[in-house]
Amino acid sequence: MAFPLKDWARSLKREIHALYLAGRDPRVPYAAKTVAALVAAYALSPIDLIPDFIPLLGYLDDIVIVPLGIWLAIRMIPPHLLDEHRRSAASAEGRPVSRTAAVVIIGVWLLALSSIGWLWLR
Length: 122
Hints:
transmembrane helix; DUF1232 domain-containing protein; transmembrane; DUF1232; membrane
């Protein structure tokens, strides 16, 4: 017996991987590449913009930002290229991890914390 939620999660991972691949494809328009790369990097990053341990808000970014970003990126990528990247993602083993996105998110958190510290000391 298949679980619909498990199938949905698996297909979402494939979509994110396809967006990751599309973000690196020179045939994809620059705006679509930028959106796809940002969404894939954020979704694959081990660090969230809002940590999951914060009640309600922690999961809000995962529930809202990622699906909206995926939807937008999919709408911007030409269908024939997206199909090609979906096939590549389906046949690929493993999941890419975006270390660059992790560094950017850490940088945002450090900047926010240092700003709060500066305001507090002031």
